[in-house]
Amino acid sequence: MPTIAITLNGERREIPAGATVSELLVIAEADRQPVAVVVNENIVRPEERPSRVLQAGDQVEVLVFAGGG
Amino acid sequence: MDSLRLGSYTFSSRLILGTGKFSSTSAMIEAVRASGAQLVTVALRRFNREQAEDDLFGPLSQIEGLTLMPNTSGAATASEAIKAAHISRELSGSPFIKVEIHPNPHHLMPDPIETWEACKILAAEGFLVMPYIPADPVLAKRLEEVGCSSVMPLGSAIGSGQGLANSEMIRLIIRESKIPVIVDAGLRSPSEACAAMEMGCDAVLVNSAVAVARDPAAMASAFAKAVEAGFEARNAGLMARSGAAVATSPLTSFLGAAS
Fold first, then answer.
1. Nearest residue in chain B measured CA to CA from A60
2. pLDDT tens digits for B27-77?
3. What number of other Cβ atoms are within 10 A of residue B258's Cβ?
4. B225 catalytic, yes or no?
C-alpha cells in the first residue's frame, strides 16, 4: 500500500495515501474522545473530517484539554 | 446571594477553580465537586496516546452545571493566544476564554501589550474574554473599553502562594471598574480569598492552593466558604476603622461609685 509522510503533533508519521483526517484519528487511537484537529493551521471540524484527505507534508495537530489554571 | 454575571451567563458560585497540578484526575474531580465551582479552567495540550488519562473533557463533562473556561497558556504573543482561543472554542463549545500571555517562564508575568491586542480581537469575535493581567488600573480600564467580560489581576505570581501582594492596586481596579474584577493567581489560603472578596472582588480564581493541598477536596470546600463569607461580609457593610479604642461596654464606673 502506498504511503505518505505527514507530521502529527510534531513527529513524522507514515500513513496510507488517501487517508482522511477521520482515518488518521483511528490510526492514532485519538477517536475515543473529543479532540480538536488543526491541519496546516486550519481547524478541521468533526463534520469535515471524513472527507478531508491528507496530503504529503501536512502538519497535523490533535489537541485535547488537560489540567490548567 | 447575588449571582456573578459574566456576559449572558450567571453563576451562583464566586469561586473559579483551576484544574492544573492535581495528583490525579479523580482528585481534581473531587475538588471541583467540593468547591461548588461552576466555572473551571482547562488548558490545550497535544493528544498523547500514552497519557489518555490526561484528557479532562470527559470527566469534567460528567459534572452537571459546569462551564469550561479554556486558557491560552503557552501563548507568548497575541496571535498565538487567538489561535489557541479558536481551537479551544471548537473543543469546549464554551464562549469563555482566559487570555493568558506570558513570555517569560521564570516569572510568568502577563504581557500587557499582547494581552490587550488579543482581547480586543477576541471580544470583537464574540468571546467572553477574561484576561489574566498585572494589577494595573490603566490596563484594566483599557481592557474594559475593548469589551472584556472581566479583568483578572494577579494577587501575586502564579503558583507562588504570596497572597494579595498587589492589594492596593487591586483596590484601585475595583474602584474604577464597571466589569467584574476577579483575583487570579498567587492565593495560598482561604483567608486571602476572603480578604479579596471583602475588598470588593467579584470572584476569586484558585488553582495551586487547592491542587497541592494534602486534601484538595477539603481545601476546595474551605475556599468556597471563605469566598462566601467575604462576599456576605462586604454586603453586610464592614465597620469603619478607628485610630483609637471605642468601648463596646458602658463605662459608667458603677464599681468605683459603690466603693
1. B46
2. 999 999 999 999 999 999 999 988 766 788 889 988 999 999 999 999 999
3. 6
4. no
Distance from CA of A8 to the nearest CA of B (A): 10
Domains of chain B: 4-240 (3.20.20.70)
Cα dihedral B106/A68/B182/B114 (nearest 10): 50
Residue at A68 is within a domain: no
**To the nearest whole angstrom, how far is the Cα of A63 from the nearest Cα of chain B?**
4
Q: Is residue A25 part of a domain?
A: yes
Contact: A67, B28; criterion CB under 8 Å: yes
Cell numbers placing B20: 492544573
Q: How far apart are CA B221 and CA B184, in angstroms?
A: 18
Total domains in the fold of chain A: 1
**Chain B neighbors of A36, CB-CB under 8 A:** 44, 87-88, 90-91
The set of residues, in sequence order, having a beta carbon less than 8 Å from that of B65 and lying 6+ positions away, is: B38
- Chain B nearest-CA distance from A37, in A, is 8
Cβ atoms < 10 Å from Cβ of B205: 27
Residue A33 belongs to a domain: yes
* Chain A interface disruption, residue of B67, B90, B210, most A CBs within 10 A: B90
ipTM exceeding 0.90, yes/no: yes
Measure the CA–CA gap between B45 and B22, rounded to whole angstroms: 16
Grid coordinates standing for B34? 467540593
- The range of the structural domain enclosing residue A29 comes to 3-63
The closest CB to that of A63, out of B21, B22, B44, belongs to B44
CATH number of the domain to which A25 belongs: 3.10.20.30
Please indicate, yes or no, if residue A69 is contained in any of the structural domains: no
